[in-house]
What we know:
Blueprint: H1 2-27, H2 33-54, H3 56-60, H4 64-91, H5 94-101, H6 104-115, H7 121-139, H8 141-145, H9 152-182, H10 189-213, H11 222-251, H12 256-278, H13 284-317
Helix pairs in contact: 1-4, 1-5, 1-11, 1-12, 2-4, 2-10, 2-11, 4-5, 4-9, 4-10, 5-9, 5-12, 5-13, 6-7, 6-9, 7-13, 12-13
Subcellular location: Membrane
GO cellular component, one term: membrane
Transmembrane segments: 36-56, 68-89, 95-115, 124-144, 156-174, 190-213, 225-248, 255-275, 287-305
Amino acid sequence: xxxxxxxxxxxxxxxxxxxxxxxxxxxxxxxxxxxxxxxxxxxxxxxxxxxxxxxxxxxxxxxxxxxxxxxxxxxxxxxxxxxxxxxxxxxxxxxxxxxxxxxxxxxxxxxxxxxxxxxxxxxxxxxxxxxxxxxxxxxxxxxxxxxxxxxxxxxxxxxxxxxxxxxxxxxxxxxxxxxxxxxxxxxxxxxxxxxxxxxxxxxxxxxxxxxxxxxxxxxxxxxxxxxxxxxxxxxxxxxxxxxxxxxxxxxxxxxxxxxxxxxxxxxxxxxxxxxxxxxxxxxxxxxxxxxxxxxxxxxxxxxxxxxxxxxxxxxxxxxxxxxxxxxxxxxx
Length: 332
């Protein structure tokens, strides 16, 4: 019991570290969103490059197509995802971005259900309706609150970018999990994580000179420059690399039904942390939208936990049957 509690606390620590990604775009201003993304993932990619160099023999043993796939999903699931998150957070709100991206368990469930039926489609109706209602409420919050005369277009674009981030992350999770389950020889987890990091870092290193050239000159004054460097180091090394290491270690000792709720705390932390940075309280419509989305995730997780227990009880009764690990979520 004590070991499980320690692992849960470690997983919550990792989720908190990841949550700062929703705060950073507003915190590093006047630096551009592109500079934050490329700076963060260039450092993340260098961490991955270091691991790949040390594990060169294991990397050479992998088929080329798998290496390319690891780089590809790293580019999509990290680089493209955080581009959407960064611009969404500055055009709209870090609070709204975190809440919308937090609904990704539902899109992951819908996409995963096509490939591997985890629950009945009827059980997904209520969570999907609640999620869509929450996103709709967040999308029109400026009009409801009477702020539509100034900046409503940016807020709408911010919500759309948050939805793109949610879909991008869902695609990454589903494709990564499917590939790992269908390969007969599982890749080394450390090498795989390094490949994903290099996928995000490679694109960042290519675009970093352009990001620096397109950044406002005031960013290179002493304090703004120190701020952007500190955030890039924190997000790239501590948040992305170390946070993922903590999560992977902790997840090995966490019961499967707890993995989903613990992952969901990342966006809850992100929404809470974003408000002090934006120096405001959430509006009533934002609170309402967040509650709808939180309710949708809760309903989904209740169904998912119940179904996981049913599958587990059937597995224990079948003493001579093969072990089925298809319901164990992949740790990213």
